[in-house]
Amino acid sequence: MKGYGKVMSRLDKQMEFIMEVDKIKTINRQTYITGGVRKENDAEHSWHLALMALLLSEYANDDIDVLKTMSMVLIHDMVEIDAGDTYAFDSVGAASKEERELKAADRIFNILPKDQAEYFRKLWDEFEEGETMESKFANALDKIQPILLHNLSDGKSWREHKVTLEQILKRNEFTKDGSASLWDYTKEIIDDHIDKKNIIG
Amino acid sequence: MKGYGKVMSRLDKQMEFIMEVDKIKTINRQTYITGGVRKENDAEHSWHLALMALLLSEYANDDIDVLKTMSMVLIHDMVEIDAGDTYAFDSVGAASKEERELKAADRIFNILPKDQAEYFRKLWDEFEEGETMESKFANALDKIQPILLHNLSDGKSWREHKVTLEQILKRNEFTKDGSASLWDYTKEIIDDHIDKKNIIG
């Protein structure tokens, strides 16, 4: 993208980043979209989480900064451009995930001008650490959204991967810390799919 | 989605909306993503615009409320779930576009609880009217983003549709009202693709 614009080195960097992260549209997840027609990608997932952050902020366990939370979820999966999507229940991939993602964060966010690179890196670190209310809520949404979609496609992805209740509960260990009421809601969906034998109880 | 949750009629409506708008992932546009491998859909496009609103707000012609602008772009294409994507240079489709989209807005936003339905409808109306600074900037991003992607895929979509400079300038009549500097930047990309014969000058 470089070379357009006049006194534009800052804008050139921003535009280069905006085009680089277009690649997130090619990173597929294990979640099916509406109708189970195909799997979701990270851009679609991030759009969905930002919308959920906007609509469901009232259910966070404490007050949150909605703009910060939306920004966090918009960028939370960008590291997967280099590191790939590590499926939730892939224990082999999980072992090297942190290292791969840290390296990716170093490269990708640093395409931006320094101030924005630092802001995005801080925001991503905050999401990964999950200590603040915003990051607890963002992490809760990140775990709940695929469950909503799995429900919408009648548990297809759970069945394909022979997922157990134990795996889901482990993965959702901290979901209630973001939102007790959204976790209650989600738990009922899970129970329903145990009854339907889509999740191994 | 109904039936989960305890005293949850409000949350049921919100969740029903969140699942209904998943369909936006199936609405394809005429823009190619990175590498020209396939066309972009509305969810991916909306994610990209929200990110751009966050990163590029400094170039708006006047101060903007970033949260409001991000929210606006996240929802601006939801009406296409019912109305479909009307390609930018489809004059036949354009004639019935407004009516189809108004009907869609009535149905889709009203899935939400009343306060949120009204807020989203107001936000969408504001985007369509393009009178406020936020909506001018959001509309500018909505026009600029496909141009950035067309550039990234070497003008493939412009060539396929035999697009003329006149069509692009007409479509971008108000882009400079959102951001004069982003329009300058974009104009240089357009000029470059006239030189390359990807746009008919």
Report on the structure:
- Two copies of one chain form a homodimer.
- Chain A is mainly alpha-helical and 201 residues long.
- Chain A is 64% helix and 4% strand.
- In chain A, strands 1-2 form a two-stranded antiparallel ribbon.
- In chain A, strand 1 and strand 2 form a beta hairpin.
- In chain A, helix 2 packs antiparallel against helix 3.
- The relative contact order of chain A is 0.13.
Task: Give the structural class of chain A.
Answer: mainly alpha
Mean pLDDT of chain A: 94
The helix content of chain A, as a percent range, equals 55-70%
Shape of chain A: globular
Key terms:
homodimer, 201 residues, mainly alpha, two-stranded antiparallel ribbon, 64% helix, 4% strand, globular
Write the layout of secondary structure elements.
The structure is a homodimer of 201-residue chains.
Chain A: H1 9-20, E1 28-32, E2 39-41, H2 42-56, H3 66-75, H4 80-83, H5 91-109, H6 114-129, H7 133-152, H8 156-160, H9 165-171, H10 175-178, H11 180-195
Antiparallel strand pairs in A: 1-2
Helix pairs in contact in A: 2-3, 2-7, 3-6, 3-7, 6-7, 7-11
